[in-house]
Amino acid sequence: MSNGQTVRTTREVQVLRIPSGEQIHLPADTPVVITQALGGSFTLLVPTQAGLFRLAAEDADAIGHAPSAPASSPAGDVTEGAIIEVLKTCYDPEIPVNIFDLGLIYSCEIAPGDAGSRVAVKMTLTSPGCGMGPVIAREAEEKISALPGVASAGVEVVWDPPWSVERISPEGREKLGMV
User: Fold this and answer.
1) Is pLDDT larger for residue 73 or for residue 150?
2) Do the domain assignments include residue 49?
3) Residues 42, 105: one domain?
4) What is the pLDDT of residue 168?
5) Which of 22, 44, 143, 172 has its CA 20 to 30 A from that of 56?
6) What is the CATH classification number for the domain harbouring 102?
């Protein structure tokens, strides 16, 4: 199934309204249009609800997709490179650029420990009013936590310094047609 295709939900499923983050339930057999499918999650246009919604990766079967496997890195020491790669699988549901290339990641600290590393990430959002911030941060935290060697992960949303388009990577600029 490709972006722009209309499908029907195969079962009742919980989705999040964009950008407020409000949870709603879609009944089985609800028509939806897949507008974005990146990083395992889906952005859906739901004509009966007049808006865009985020469907989590673990519920992909509700629209006929297989749930994506969690990203992982080779076993061993946790590296900043491995964390960056997993952050590149997290997307804002309204923007087709991952949160790393969008310039939302401000810092990544790794503290090795006997039971595994503790990872602390500071990130921001493109807009302070975005209700999807906690959802995006939680997804990043879950994906980092799934990396081999990570004992715990925390992702904090911060507002200083404010995000600006200058933070977008060259790859992100290209994806957005800014070059």
Assistant:
1) 150
2) yes
3) no
4) 96
5) 172
6) 3.30.300.130
Q: What element of type H or E holds 175?
A: helix 170-175
pLDDT tens profile 46-59: 999 888 999 999 99
Mark whether 84 and 171 lie in a shared domain. yes
Asked if omega into 19 is within 30° of 0 (cis), the reply is yes
Full residue range of the structural domain in which residue 89 is found: 80-175
pLDDT tens figures, 164-176: 999 999 999 999 9
Instruction: State both tokens at 171.
Output: 């790859």
Number of domains in the chain: 2
Give exposure, 151-179, as e/b (b: 16+ Cβ within 10 Å). eebebebeeeeebeeebbeeebeebeeee
- Average pLDDT value for the chain: 90
**Token digits for 147?**
């990396």
Residues 137, 93: one domain? yes
Residues 93, 150, single domain; the answer is yes
Q: Could you please report the per-residue DSSP string of 48-114?
A: TTTEEEEE-GGGGGGGT-PPPPPP---SSS--HHHHHHHHTT-B-TTSSSBTTTTT-EEEEEEE--T
Q: Is the pLDDT of residue 73 over 50?
A: no
Q: What is the pTM of this model?
A: 0.80
